[in-house]
Design a protein that fits this description.
There is one protein chain. With 71 residues, the protein is mostly helical. The protein is 92% helix and 0% strand.
């Protein structure tokens, strides 16, 4: 149980960092002037979004395991 709670905390922190990085890149993208910069930042935003989605899926699985363990 403690191991899963620790994993949940790690994933929540990772989710928070990914969200901050994605949001930062989105703000940079909104201010980008060159096409190269817009394309690069667009790809980074997309990559961070994918990583964030996978992180959230893992968090959901951890939450489900914790729910089963604490019934």
């Amino acid at each position: 149980l403690r191991r899963m709670q620790r994993r949940r905390l790690q994933h929540q922190e990772h989710e928070r960092r990914l969200l901050a990085m994605r949001d930062h890149r989105q703000r940079q993208l909104a201010q980008a002037t060159s096409l190269d910069e817009q394309q690069r930042l667009g790809k980074e935003v997309e990559a961070y979004s994918g990583r964030l989605a996978r992180c959230r899926q893992a968090l959901d699985k951890i939450e489900n395991v914790l729910a089963r363990l604490t019934r």
